[in-house]
Design goal:
Blueprint: E1 17-21, E2 24-28, E3 37-39, H1 41-45, H2 57-61, E4 66-68, H3 72-82, H4 87-93, H5 98-105, H6 113-123, E5 128-130
Antiparallel strand pairs: 1-2, 1-3, 4-5
Length: 135
């Protein structure tokens, strides 16, 4: 059964063409394809090219890469102070040495993933953030 042109209604000989007419993509015959912007059928199934433009909508669909916040030491200290804990107390509660807490808050030690998750859960803070939010 031949495909009918969605513009003029005539049966299309061979493969129909895809054309953008008034904002919609229609299957059209050869002559009607000239009325709109012809789209190559192959294009329509190709994956969209990834854009590196941060403002583009396609960027938001990508899984953001999470990285340790640059100001993690401040977030940890503020979280601890909010809970009214000293460095010793926090160390006891999360089973870390006070010296570790001191190093973290002094930004001389980057917590590993396990310690980071422990701090996040205990202090109800967020230490991982999408990498792009640092810029
Ligand atoms: Zn037509």
């Amino acid at each position: 059964m031949p495909v009918e042109c969605e513009v003029c209604g005539n049966p299309v000989a061979g493969a129909p063409r895809l054309a953008m007419i008034d904002g919609s993509i229609l299957q059209v015959c050869n002559s009607c394809s000239r009325l709109g912007t012809e789209l190559l059928q192959k294009r329509a199934v190709e994956r969209p090219i990834r854009s590196s433009n941060p403002g583009s909508p396609s960027q938001k669909l990508l899984e953001p890469e999470l990285e340790l916040r640059l100001d993690y030491h401040k977030v940890i200290r503020e979280g601890r102070e909010k809970m009214g804990l000293s460095q010793d107390q926090l160390g006891l509660r999360i089973a870390e040495k006070t010296s570790v807490i001191k190093l973290l808050e002094g930004r001389r030690l980057k917590p590993d993933i396990i310690l980071t998750r422990k701090l996040e859960r205990f202090l109800k803070i967020q230490l991982f953030a999408p990498a792009e939010s640092f810029e």
